[in-house]
Amino acid sequence: MMSANGFTICHPELSSLTLESGCLDVNLVVPRLKNLTIKYWPAKFLISAPDLFSLRYRDEYDFLELSADFLHLEKVDICICCSSKDKKDARKIICLLQQLHSVKSLTLNSESIKVLSSYTKLISHQPSPFTKLNGLKIYPRYVDEKQSEFTLATEVKKYLLDSSPDATFTMVSHEEIIAVKNVTIARKLMIKLGAALDKLKENSETNTSDMDQDEAPSESHIATVEEQVEDLNEVVMTGTSRITEILQEIEETLTKLPKSHRDKLQARFYCLCAEADTVMRPIV
């Protein structure tokens, strides 16, 4: 249902919803909604979802504007890019956090929290709104850029955790994010390498079987087989080149990893190297 400034979503059975890349105000009437994800949608949200359990929000510079508090919301992940020099941004962050007071698991990007460290007077005399918090996680949004190490101000930490002294607190560094990213890259490359080795073995076996034909084939048959073998040889050599490239990519990725992560992948990499040597030695 459309209105002058936005639209309404009304659904009695909807349990999960993702809104992405919009700008109109949204009125949600979804009594059974459990999971809500909002990405790059700068607008005001009027939400009637009494059982909402999980909320994920991501945007560049616009803050999530909610019409009400959520009493049963337990899991929240907020990621916003904002200026550490803008006092208005600090006030908006505080307002948003106060609306999320019932959460048990809270994840925030360090760039959005950094602004509070610049205006600690805004929170220095306020109690922490989070009385049920089990875990707080803060992580950097941008991992490919060199940034100064972020230090969470004591006042900000107290504001976030003082009302839940038993909550676990995790501060993720740029290095940890990059390490996880590189581990994922290495694992995907190893899967790709395994598939390339299987394909090379298949082509090599096909090549060999084509050469083991009748003892006295006709001239036309010989010409056909020679042409097929030539094509297969080209495929095989291309495969060996690609395998060598993947091996080099994996090795370069592993050198970027901390020792603790590298050791977990090294054994698998050595096995793949040995398999590649066995498969490629008769060819090259």
Automatic annotation (TrEMBL):
Protein name: Uncharacterized protein
Domain of life: Eukaryota
